[in-house]
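CORE FACILITY INTAKE
Project code: CF-77B
Contact: R.S. (postdoc)
Sample description: multi-component assembly, two entities in total
Requested service: structural model of the whole complex
Turnaround: standard
Below are the sequence entries exactly as provided by the requester. Do not edit them.
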Amino acid sequence: DKSLEHFREAMGVMQHHDAVTGTEKQLVANDYSRILYKSMDQAGEIISKAIWKWSGMENSTAASSKLFTCLQLNISSCEFSEKSDTFIAVVYNPLSRPVSTYIRVPVQENSYIVQSLTDGVYPTVQIVPIPEAVQKIPGRKNNAINEVVFRTLDIPPLGILVYSIEKIQENVVEQPQ
Amino acid sequence: SANFISNELYNISVNTNGDLTVHWNKQNMDVVQSFHYYIGAEGNNKNFLNRSSGAYIFRPKELSARNFAYSGSYKIYKGPVVQELHHTINDWVSQVVRIYPEEKHIEFDWLVGPIPVKDKIGKEIITRYSSNLKTDKTFYTDSNGREMLKRIRNYRSTWNLDLKEPISGNYYPVTSKITLKDKKKQLKLNVLVDRAQGGSSLKDGDVELMLHRRLLKDDAFGVDEALNETAFGEGLVVRGTHYLFGGKVKNMDTFVLKEKELALKLALHPWILGAPINFSSIENI
């Protein structure tokens, strides 16, 4: 697939010890991140196709929608989860063993319901505010102020779990701080 | 209660000078976490001992790290999935400390930057976990995520060391884990990192890890640029995670297995992808 070529080129360029240790000049470091970002962005198509295929939904109408990565979760920012009232979150486990962990998805409102589309279970959900310091990070352009936190159990090795997350109109009791 | 978070293992609060204290219930083990910073040395780079601190070398100007004036605050959020303590040190250093009912580790989600340099002083920010373990100058760091290497302060196993740089000479690469052991009390303290950092134990019972650096002079090792990364016109902001994990080492095997699992999970966290969908497509999914 053409988009994999970009990854191969990126990995070829970044065999240099500077790319591994970060001892290159600033402009070179910026170019490395540009190359990596471009590869990730152009791989969106192939990632979507793979995930719909693994989950056996490649022929469903849902598979027509492209899956987006959340490359800015490190500043609690994610395009599709902030702007949509209903969205699916696909959790991919890169390890070769089952993993249970906590998923945090940035959102704008403060009441959501989460359902696993793998086994229909509704995991316990907690809404936690994103710290002000994170919201103030220079260059963070978005409006998420909360995070939906829930636990995923036993994500299969090199596999996925799929959740639907939906905003609900319920007046949430503000918990005492 | 509104001023600490706790589970059956730990009780976590903020003490009067703004440091975070972790008390292990039922075990005689305490840790105080605090942030500090080194002033980066600025030399004329004429000879080796006069090099500046920079991309290739860590060279603090003074013999100890400075404390931050605590001008912060903290807020606590408790719920069925996670308990969080949002801890602000000042307007460019903060962290979120989390404990989960099903997990045995404590998660430190730290955020540092933009480091102010209006005073023309390069700064190197560390986090320090000070415990009451008796460690006899010894600590352990992993070697590229594999076996743990024994480190002894101010000592090298293959030659008589005459240490010119008492701080950076004791710093080692921490790719995934740094560990302290109290052999007598059979207690262990691990700090797992989500990326390679410099780390050391400069005092018995202490672990410190370098989080972020902003320096204003090139160290004359070839890159010919100060380590002064910016983004959107301001100093770079870095955000990362440490897992603090430890206690009585009753059964070594489960302890070691749990550590390895946790270190791997931290380094290779699951990916989140997604897409907006309308209600009908949920049904057919």
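Facility notes:
- The CA atoms of residues 3 and 43 of chain A lie 5 Å apart.
- Chain A touches chain B through 67 residues (CB under 8 Å).
Invoice: internal transfer
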